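#onboarding

Welcome to the new folks! Below is a worked example of what a typical request in this channel looks like: someone posts a single protein sequence, and someone else replies with the predicted structure as tokens. Don't worry about understanding the tokens yet, we'll cover that in week two.

Example request:
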Amino acid sequence: MVYQSKFAHGIMFHRFQDLKNKNASYGALTSQNLTKLINFIGRKRILNPDEWISRLNKGNLKKNHICLTFDDGLKSQIKVALPVLEKFNLKAFWFIHCNTLPNNFDKSEIFSILIVKKFKTYKKFIDKFFKYIDIEPKIFESKKFKKYYNDETSLYDFYSEIELKYKFLRDIHYPRKKFENIMENFFLYFKLNIKDFYKNTWLNKKDLINLNKKGHMIGMHSFSHPYRMSSLPKKKQSAEYKKNFDYLRFILKKNPLAMSHPLDSYNKYSLKILKDLGILCGFRSHSKTSNGLKINHSTLEMAREDPVNILKFIKINLQSRIKT
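Example response:
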């Protein structure tokens, strides 16, 4: 059983959990998951960031080349995933946004934690949440939702319908602040205050400096992690990336060279802004393409695969081997 790839790409990681963590988010991976994935892909195929960037810009990345990427700068990544990387002597890309301060943090990340803490299944959360907001069913019969649903399922085959309904309300239907207020009040109803769960969720400056010293590459992921970067005017997009760029340069004493598009949202203005900042490599959050374009059609739009898909493939193949 070999991991086949027709093009060079990254593997995209987000949340991790240890077996003792009762506040892990849905979809969080374990150290065992990561070890299994690296062994399956093959250590020799995985490039460290410096080599990936060098080969990318010389045009000699091969189709079997892989790199590892971590989005959102989560503390669980260095607690659970970093020891595994060190065991394999691997370096990775770490894409950091700045929405991690005590009075200004990415509430969506905390919502994910609280959903797991309070509800036994995602469906139970959705049932309670939809009842709480008294959502009109016709919203999910609209052309806007149908287009969103078709777009998302064409790119990601692991989201359930109820997950996409929640994401639609979060990303499209409600303005961001309104959605966050609704969610905060929803959890307060269950006597859960999101501010109580802020601590130890994100990497701090010391963590970033240590990762950099160990040879990992710290890259950009926007300033505030907007839900739809492509919907922002050019000036606001520029501010998002310039502030993120300056923040990382101040901490690391060097210019960031790589980035990943938050929630895979970008447009031609985003790419121009990133190019002008000197970013050499950018990653999308899937491995699909459209409109006749080749899969990695620019150095700022490199493909990534979700580990969920790879682990599912490993499981299916293992089951088939057992049956035979």
